[in-house]
Design goal:
Structural class: alpha+beta
Radius of gyration: 17 Å
Order of helices and strands: HEHEE
Distance between the termini: 9 Å
Helix content: 10-25%
Shape: elongated
Number of helices: 2
Strand content: 35-45%
Number of domains: 1
Length: 74
């Protein structure tokens, strides 16, 4: 991914954007309390709220950082 971002940045001028945007989406890892107790993800996952789906979830958040033109940065 780093290589691809670097190559895209070299071939265009959009890598020089001084404004970045961040978005995230929930990645649900379990639904039942029993699964949550025994999951190997217990060290990383937490309870959170997803406003777009109006519900709570147990899991992780996947974040995307990109320039205003859509070049992924992180």
């Amino acid at each position: 991914m780093t290589w691809l971002t670097t190559e895209l940045g070299r071939q265009t001028s959009i890598a020089e954007d001084d404004v970045w945007v961040v978005d995230s989406t929930p990645v649900e890892c379990a639904r039942s309390r029993e699964t949550v107790k025994h999951s190997d993800l217990a060290r990383w996952a937490e309870y959170g709220y997803c406003a777009s789906r109006s519900r709570f979830f147990w899991g992780l958040r996947l974040h995307l950082i990109c320039t205003l033109h859509g070049l992924p940065v992180g």
